[in-house]
Amino acid sequence: MDSSIFLDITRIAGDFLNEVISLFFQMAPYLLLGFTVAGILSVTLKRSMVARHVGSPGFSSVVKAALLGVPLPLCSCAVVPTAGYLRQAGASKPSLLSFLISTPQTGVDSVIATYGMMGPVFAVLRPVIALFTGIAGGVSSMFFSRSENAAAAEASDGGAADPGASPAETEEAKEEREAKEERETEERGKGSEPAAKGLSIPRAAGRAFHYAYIESIDDIALHFLLGLGVAGLISLLIPDGFLEGSLIADGLPGMLLMVLIGIPMYICSTSSIPVAVALMAAGISPGAAYVFLVAGPATNAATLAVLKRMLGFRSVLLYLGTIIIGALLFGPLVNLVFAAGGWEPVLSSAAGEAHGNGLLEYISGGALALMIGAFFYRTLRSRLGRRNTGPGNGAENTSQADRIVAGDGPDSREDGGFRISMNIEGMTCAHCASTVRQALESVEGTRSVSVDLKNGTARVHGHADENALASAVKAQGYLVK
User: Fold this and answer.
1) 74 and 212 both lie in a single domain
2) Torsion sign over Cα 394, 396, 402, 405
């Protein structure tokens, strides 16, 4: 009896691991290609260039913001500081909302992975629909902003006790004024555009490599493994085709269920792919799977909290409403596209089981496994280092103004430099930490920089001006305490 149970458990565990490993090897080549393209974009597509195109108010900026956001390989965490930078650079709220909605739904890396795992139809539909939903969100924000401004004008015409106090100033106008004041303050400091420094070809290649194979891996590793695990469980517990013809396989009930599953289960646009593949193999319609591909990557509780502070509660409601309504509207359209073309979804897991993996899959899978292993090694080393240091022994608990001057502490240097510790709010992922590090390194006089993502701190050694350092960080959309 006991041996029979043990054998059953062993068989189930083996089936689960086989499914997970098969998906891992099938996705590996497309992920590595996507990361490579993302790395190239990271050094060629500058935030300042994006800001120039989305800075003016109006419909054209909303469209440009969505167009620029679609290819960027940023999850809903990493997109927030980018949006903060654009806000400080003068981008309007409708443009920001368009950018925030379109960007996390897809990216060049997830499009390539979608093509490999789900076929060309999904690979085309994902960015196209992300573009339209981003524009829809921006236009909605324009409409509500105009309504709010009109109401404020009527209130102002009704008379005010103190016109100079501007009692009818809208939330939109107030935020625009505050953003303008902050921009003017930062322009007076140094480093307001850290990316302005020209990069040599070797340094640009090194930065692209670092972004592609270290930062991108750090961003998705845990979510990717979670997605593979969920996909393996679905494949194990729900036989292929089991849900076909059921109430949740197609139509509004199934799509609503995908929204309810996707919103609390935050995974990035790339990591959601194996889950969607497993759901379709179980019998879920392409439209319902698409709803999951949108609802999961575009929503994140931490991100929503930051957006509320940055853009206001109304914009958060517009953000969520556009994503949910857009997913439910475009889900049936995805089904219609597949039906009209007579296409069947291409599910690579089934193809992999039928034909097995080739040399490319094994080489790519081995490389990806090494990169993910390096991520866990870096994480473990960082945690052990903090444990050995102990609370209160480092400078991470000091204020921005706390300095250790040469000769006054163990971290002093013979060159007479000093160390500044900064508490930074808004860093949520490895991409955020890298952005802060690069911003600080760009400030003249900086010798070395270390960023602690978990504690939200950065330490800078050198002769850099403290205000310039703070301005460089703020210019990237983060807060310095």
Assistant:
1) yes
2) positive
